Amino acid sequence: MTTADLDLMKHNAEGLFRRKRVLAFAMPAIVAAYFAYIFFAFDIPGLVQRASMDNAVTLASDSWSYKVHVTRSNSTGEIAYAVEGERKGAYPEGQRPDWVSGGDIVTVDLGRGYLVRLLPENRTEVDIPGYGTIEAQAGDRQVTTNLGDDLPDWINASDRRVAITTPEGRITLTGSKTEVFNYFPGWELFWFTFDSPYHGQPVTRILFGDRIDPDRANIAGALADWWNNPMWRHKDVAWAIGETILMAFLGTMGAAMLALPLAFLAARRFTPMVVVRGLTRRLFDFVRGVDALIWTVVLARAFGPGPLTGSLAILITDTGTFGKIFSEALENVDGRQIEGVASTGAKPLQRYRFGVIPQVVPVLLAQVLYFLESNTRSATIIGAITGGGIGLMLTQAIQTQKDWEEVAYYIVLVVVMVMLMDWFSGWLRGRLIGRKD
Amino acid sequence: MTDATLGKAHSPAAIDAIQSSYMVQVQRRRLYGGLTLMIFVLLMVSGFVVADDRNAGGFWEGLHQIGDYPAAVLSEAWAKRADLPALLLHFFPALVETINIAAVSTLFGAGAGLVLSLLSTRGLARWPRLIPLFRRFMDIMRAVPEIVIALVLIFILGGGPVPAMIAISIHTAGALGKMFSEVAENADLKPVEGLASTGATWSQRMWLGVLPQVAPNYISYALLRFEINIRASAILGFVGAGGLGYELRNSMAWGPGQFDEAAAIFILLFGTIVFFDQLSSRYRNRLSEGAHA
Questions:
Q1: Pairing of strands A132-139, A142-145
Q2: Which pLDDT does position B1 carry in this prediction?
Q3: What is the 3-state secondary structure (H, E, C) of B93-131?
Q4: Does B162 contact A at CB distance below 8 Å?
Q5: Residue A305: its chain B contacts at CB < 8 A?
Q6: Which residue spans traverse the membrane (chain A) (predicted)?
Q7: Would you state the pLDDT for residue A288?
Q8: Does 3.30.43.10 match the CATH number of domain A234-433?
Q9: How far apart are CA B98 and CA A42, in angstroms?
Q10: pLDDT tens for each residue of A124-138
Q11: Which of residues 185-224 of B touch A (CB under 8 A)?
């Protein structure tokens, strides 16, 4: 090796190092500059101001707790008790929660010394430990109280409406009604609503005790009442989950069945005609490029909302994806096996069946099963757009902005559903292909 | 069938026995195959019937209407073709936002996925005992559909690109983390050991010993994710997270008369997806060829 060679090598090595050094500084700099641009493009400073922490608190607390509304109508003087203030969750006639007592003067005990007394003539007294008693008189469209002008920040008062937020519950007073909200942890009425005879019965009594409802066997009756629970709608939720899985299943399998013959047309080995091959490939690119979103929108116009639209959208998009993957797999098959089958005098169809299919099936099945799982997630989103399945229930529950415990319930169900599908497709893959991964 | 039976197979009777037992096996296999196929067909048909039944419009009534909406959109767009360039320009910022959401969430997701993958790979993990914990964590990140996180964040943060960005980032971190960790499992441990012998810290070992080996595969997976994330960010826009999807929903809500807007958005979306699809597949091919060479 001469000195000139060594010099050249050194020069090259230095050049390489210089390039690497520049790259090592340039890449982070570019990314940092991009993030700086995004910081302003996405208006992060404005977002911090707009973000509603109240909403976050409501969401976080409501998703694992429920409230019981005690509502006095100031026009009739009647007092109603209902879980979440919904008619479906109303206490039956003549019953009330055990933390409410009294006859003429109804006392609501919120706990830890916080008391609300609903007095006759639409008067209300609120005992707050460490603050005193707030007296209020509801009149025609207005509320008069003994509160001064200097109010703590947990009281919000005007002539028409007074809202008191305590750690144990909330009280809202207006001219027309007085409402007390008492919070409890848990998902109330998840099993049975008040109108079911099984509400409040211990599990052992339902399973082993005498008939609670004389007309029905305990377990059958309890199951039916739980299934038809009007508050949590277990039946509808189960149907919605079924619809979502159905969308994923029909879409994925339909796409695979459609894509397999088309993939032969797009593979160079099996279709010598350039025009056919090119057209099929462009078709795959087109349906993939249009994307599930546009397909969903277009198909929803033709078929209306529902699971069929969703499964067709998945089917069409995935036909393109599968077609591409399958045709690549077909390009890579081993020609010797086909030759071997052909040497036995097999016809073309038999050559495909015994020479090609056994080679590509493991690849194809692995892809199809992987997509089955990923499409379960897509079906949730497509359901939200086209109107079907658990995606729709979830969006509706979020849009009402009050049933956060239902939102939490649906989220848990969706996550469990996806994880189960993940596990199932992995298990099936292991069984069918014999490879555990 | 064992070698012992093969060795003894000289007499015709033994061959007959082998043949008949083989035929029995073949028939059983065919029976099972046929049964599986039947169950599958039954599932497909009944599934289709149920889906058709629960859909607002039926399959057969709707089939001939598929072309109606695209035809209406295209004819209106054609009638107003003079406005199309202006509309394309008008919606271009929304397109940029959609791409930005995808790009930022791919960057964040890839970064988080990188760390998670190294923490959950046997032989490389910083805390080997915590591998199952990080794996379950990634499973959950992957399992939560983007729309769930996006909708909840829209409620808290208000509409706009950030909820979609966070939602897609979380999913990307989980998905890439799994793929990255599969790649990292095959990484050669010798450079890591060599670095360890010089007293390198864990992050130095990963940065200098593992990353150079896996970088081409990682970048290739990240590019594939970017492509997927563009679609995801367009879809999330439809539920209120900004970008092109949001504009599409608005223009759809107007109905006829605004179909030219919908057409412009369709064109932009289609063009973008095809463009990045081609770009990333070309670049990925180059990366994988480089890795083989």
A1: antiparallel
A2: 45
A3: HHHHHHHHHHHHHHHHHHHHHHHHHHHCCCCCCCCHHHH
A4: yes
A5: 55-56
A6: 21-42, 245-265, 352-372, 379-395, 407-428
A7: 87
A8: no
A9: 11
A10: 888 888 887 888 887
A11: none
How many Å lie between the alpha carbon of B196 and the closest alpha carbon of chain A?
23
Give the integer Cα–Cα distance in Å for B109 and B167: 10
Interface test mutation site (partner A, options B43, B55, B228, B278, max chain A beta carbons within 10 A):
B55
Which of B:66-85 have CB within 8 Å of A? 66, 68-70
d(CA B35, CA A406): 41
**How far is it, in rounded angstroms, from Cα A267 to Cα A331?**
6
pLDDT in tens, A170-193: 888 888 888 888 888 877 777 777
pLDDT at residue number B103: 94
Right CATH for B71-292 from 3.40.50.1000, 1.10.3720.10, 3.40.190.10, 1.10.287.110: 1.10.3720.10
Contact B158 A47 (CB under 8 A): yes
Structure tokens at B165: 């960005």
Of B105, B104, B110, nearest to B222 (Cα)? B110
Domain limits, chain B? 3-55, 71-292
Strand partners, A144: A137
- CB contacts of A238 in chain B (<8 Å) are none
Q: For residue A74, give both structure tokens.
A: 């100031």
pLDDT value of residue B114: 93
